[in-house]
């Protein structure tokens, strides 16, 4: 520190980005203070200064992923006005212009795997899923929203394992159209039941 100011005010952010780069490249099991510090090009002591333990560093890095989902996924769905708009936004988020890159998908996969062992990451995953469902429920019934959420995560996983076999956009569109149609029928049926 010089005159009470940190030498590098962006250091914490660089450490978090470096942690995600290490995890995307080699998995959570490869993330160590030393490896992350080297990737961030910071002294080893900086990682322990900002993050008291490695678990906190990993969880904090995963928490930054939620902010990347907002423009890619939530914003287009918020702007959807018709069923066709909803389907277009879902297709784009699955295999089109707003779909995650392979490195992003690897991070989501690593987060899911780590969540099986880390209650803190499991809580983060539940929060992410609930945020996703809140957005989806604006246009879909609860059942259809849950099906869409599960299907999209499944297709992202497929993409991670089958980079040489891209998803058929027509098939993806047909599946989402069917779920949107189911949602309309499901909502109408619920309304009829509530009147009786």
Describe this structure as you would to a colleague.
This protein is mostly helical and 196 residues long. The protein has two domains: 52 residues, Arc Repressor Mutant, subunit A, CATH 1.10.10.60; 130 residues, Tetracycline Repressor, domain 2, CATH 1.10.357. The protein has ten helices and no strands. The longest helix has 27 residues. It starts with 10 loop residues before the first helix and ends with a helix. The N terminus is likely disordered.
Structural key phrases:
about 200 residues, mainly alpha, Arc Repressor Mutant, subunit A, Tetracycline Repressor, domain 2, 2 domains, 10 helices, about 75% helix, disordered N terminus
Main CATH class of the largest domain: Mainly Alpha
Name the CATH superfamily classification of the largest domain.
Tetracycline Repressor, domain 2
**Average pLDDT:** 88
H-E order: HHHHHHHHHH
What is the subunit arrangement here?
Answer: single chain
Structure in a nutshell:
This protein is mainly alpha-helical.
Topology:
Blueprint: H1 11-26, H2 33-40, H3 44-50, H4 54-63, H5 65-78, H6 83-95, H7 102-115, H8 119-136, H9 142-161, H10 169-195
